[in-house]
Amino acid sequence: TMKVREGGRVINAVVLLATGVNGDGHREVLGMRVATSETGPAWNEFFADLVARGLSGVRLVTSDAHAGLKDAIAANLAGSSWQPCRTHYAANLMSVTPKSMWPAVKAMLHSVYDQPDAPAVNAQFDRLLDYVEEKLPDVYEHLAGAREDILAFTAFPKDVWTQIWSNNPA
To answer: pLDDT at residue 152 above 90?
Structure first.
């Protein structure tokens, strides 16, 4: 969100931004739009405009899980899969994790992303599930229910993982 001047007053607005990873593995800005709020219709218009301008071949979308966003992705970017941004997902996971366990659960979750290949990522995710299953059943359910989405990046070459598992521009 950002403050913008509209009609002589300052209001809050949102910036919808799409970046993509090109064939060389580098991020590129695909489009940007300022909207009054982050709604499903706003995302739908944004993606429809990108497609109308020639966007095609999208295989994965990484974002937060904002209401309406996933529907707009499905409606406009057929054939693409979706995954939550790892930073956004970690924040959501902490909402069901007792505060005293945040450091341990975060460390285990981060260790999933530190693995050298897809089989190792899945094995480490299994260890994370084993770690939380009995002592943190809500965390276990959250992770188990999101596994396929969280690990969608592993279907892509390892050299682009850091560009696609998060929507943070770093």
So the answer is: yes
